[in-house]
Amino acid sequence: MDLDKMKNNMVYKQIFKRGIDDQRILDAFTDVNRHLFVPKGDWEVAYEDYPITIGDGQTISQPFMVAFMIKTLEVEPGMKILEIGTGSGYQSAILATLGADVYTVEIVHSLAKKALETLNSLGYRVHSKVGDGGLGWLQHAPFDRIIVSAGTPQITDYWKQQLKVGGMMVVPVGGFLHQYLVVLSKESEYDFKEKELCQCVFVPLRGEHGHQE
Ligand code: SAH
Questions:
Q1: 119 CA distance to ligand 1 middle (Å)
Q2: 70 CB within 6 A, ligand 1
Q3: Which atom of ligand 1 is nearest to the CA of 134?
Q4: Residues catalogued as catalytic
Q5: Which has the least CB within 10 A, 30, 63, 145, 203?
């Protein structure tokens, strides 16, 4: 199993060939070893073109979707980014590699713990907490960017309030089974612009503002 080769193939075929040609993004996906964020039994499929189960009914998102959301957000080094849904920690590692100051929230304790262990062991520094990401992370607001990696019925006011004026967020908005990826920009304190980018499928956001099971 040549994991480096599989990773380079993923970057070329799934990300570059689909139109993401920002060298910094391609380099970040080449730097981060995705297989180290999935169970060992799944290393073989770590670089495939789909989400992978990471336990507790959750998944690590499809590589292209992670790249597409990050490209949409025009992430620059030093930006303060709030991530909702740490999951495996893979996307946090990509953001940290791009030089972002990452604040990540995960509602499932065991996943948050595992992700932080993985991130720390690989030398990625992020701020992480266990909690309901629907509420954002007020203590560290405002954020330049917010990236939501679970499907939500609506964009919460907490996220809107905790975004800087001039900032952007990407959020999968819609039903339990599929959503639209929405990019929202904050033009002024009370003025928001939203655009639908594409259809997508994310696991449902839990918690007070998520989908009720
Ligand atoms: N970005 C992750 C993929 C996350 S999958 C990665 O790279 O691996 C979505 C994650 O959102 C799951 O881990 C799920 O437990 C988490 N989640 C769901 N509802 C949440 C909420 N209200 N607050 C924080 N995390 C939540």
A1: 16
A2: no
A3: 22
A4: 61
A5: 30
